[in-house]
Amino acid sequence: MRVLIVEDDKKIAEAIQALLEAQHYSVDLAYDGLSGLDDALSGIYDALILDVMLPGLNGFDLVRRMRREKIATPVLMLTARTSTEAKVEGLDAGADYYLTKPFIPAELLAAVRAVTRRQGEVLDTELKYGNLVLDRSTYTISHGQESLRLGNKEFQIIQLLLANPGRIVPKEDIILKVWGMDSDAEDNNVEVYISFLRRKLTYLHCNVEIQSARKVGYYLKLADSSSQGAIL
Question: Is residue 232 part of a domain?
Answer without folding.
Answer: no
